[in-house]
Amino acid sequence: MKRTTMLKKYDCIIVGAGPAGIFAALEFAKHTKLKILLLEKGNVLEKRMCQTAKNGGVCVNCKICDNTKGWGGGGALSDGKLNVATTTIGVRMLDYMSKPDFTRLVKVADELWVRFGAPENLFGIDNTEIRKIKKLCTKAKLDFKVSPIRHIGTGRSFDVLNNMYEALKSKIEIKFNSEVEEILVDDNKTVGVKLKNSKKYFADNVIVAPGREGSTWFADECKRLELDKVVHPVELGVRVEVPSEVMKRLTDVLYEAKISYEGKTFNDFVRTFCMCPNGFVARERVNVGGSSIISANGHSFSDRKSENTNFAILVRSNFTAPFKEPNLYGTYVTGLSNLISSGVLVQRLGDLLAGRRSTPERIKKGLVKPTLTDADPGDLAFALPYRHLVNIMEMLRALDKVTPGVFSFDTLLYGTEVKFFSSGPVFKKFLETQINNLYACGDGVGVSSNLVHASVSGLLVAEYIVNKIKEKGK
């Protein structure tokens, strides 16, 4: 009988081609003797296309949103903001690595982004203007943190990530439309993965970098493998849209201002997120826990501009025992706005304060023209909990002292916007799980929350695996 061909074994399999997976691959590619396989359940970059643009700006509600899966993950069609601060503010990565390693790898990641086409220009380095902004924020009882930002821009992000693909495709093995179903484990050690089509691949190490799109799958795998779980909060709120001149003082200096607030009534943590100068409000389909929801989002494009600036105001919700499903809560609340609209509600601030719904006629009469043209005028009070609305109103009033005009009758509020901090497993050092040689990194496993930090997590794991292999003499 003819002997069957021995199955190929890899030094490492990477699951997911978002920033964490790509940057792990970039580190491995420096070592040509290593056999690396990268598996991505989505498409190659050129086949990724949000159908909204082809449909006159109206979302067609794809079953799986091309904004979130495929080469580049959620970053490929995103606004492309690179937070290159090396301060420790709000950095969960420091739970898993030393401060010197974090500072070093942020610089390494930043240099790689620039090498592949990110702009060299940095926002947030004009100290004179920054001091003025900080003074205004302090008077308004707002906490203001400086974070240098490189803005790639929606559209240009595509080119940068494509450059990374071109650099990697001849150095490692990459397979698209290859969805991993199970992580294979033997005697508390990972040995490979099994795809949905039942095909198996074997490796000495596995890195799971599932992104937000794959976070539910990974959470289910952690449960199946009986890994201890860390529960993270969920953030819910609205996307605010105002004339760009209102935010110009902040956006010209900082591009994205990172401002937070402790609510007076409920003492909740409230923050601004993802400022998009001259940008466009968008909708995004998110798959969480088997449910598909539509969340508000925003973009600033590299090739076209609006007359408005948009940003999110998010309220953080932390839960204690016995409730351990914050993502389920976020899905439920966002689902309410989806239930009473075609996906995203829009309301004038003045209508919300007056206790009435916005109508198409009222929106049309307003000074701020919505950039998300298919958002449904309505009443956010039917969707967002009272506690969240109070927090949002308090923060808008405080922000108005820094940027007059934010708390205006015609300011538009889109809801609901939700940001999940993916639940992940308990880690040993270097993001290794309780299963030997199984590592997890990026936003989808709860260790990062932006492009640069996701990149850093991939570099951290890959460096460690390379050094471990070297110690074995390979």
Concise overview:
The protein has 474 residues and is of the alpha+beta class. It has eleven helices and 21 strands.
General description of the model:
With 474 residues, the protein is an alpha+beta fold. It has two domains: 9-117 and 152-230 and 425-471, FAD/NAD(P)-binding domain (3-Layer(bba) Sandwich), CATH 3.50.50; 137-145 and 233-420, no CATH class. The protein is built from eleven helices and 21 strands. The chain has an eight-stranded mixed beta sheet with strand order 4-12-13-16-11-19-17-18. Strands 1, 2, 6, 7, 8, 9 and 21 form a seven-stranded mixed beta sheet that branches. A hairpin with a 6-residue loop joins strand 12 (258-262) and strand 13 (269-276). The longest helix is centred in the last third of the chain and has 21 residues, at 451-471. The radius of gyration is 22 Å and the shape is globular. Mean pLDDT is 90; it is low at 1-6.
How many β-strand runs? 21
Provide the residue-averaged pLDDT. Answer: 90
- Overall geometry comes to globular
* Poorly predicted spans: 1-6
Task: Label the CATH architecture of the largest domain.
Answer: 3-Layer(bba) Sandwich
CATH names the topology of the largest domain as: FAD/NAD(P)-binding domain
Number of helices: 11
- Count of individual domains: 2
Main beta-sheet annotation:
8 strands, mixed
Rg of Cα set: 22 Å
CATH superfamily of the largest domain: FAD/NAD(P)-binding domain
Q: Kindly name the structural category.
A: alpha+beta
Report the sheet-strand fraction: 15-25%
- The level of helicity is 25-40%
First-to-last CA distance: 34 Å
CATH top level label of the largest domain = Alpha Beta
Strand order of the largest sheet: 4-12-13-16-11-19-17-18
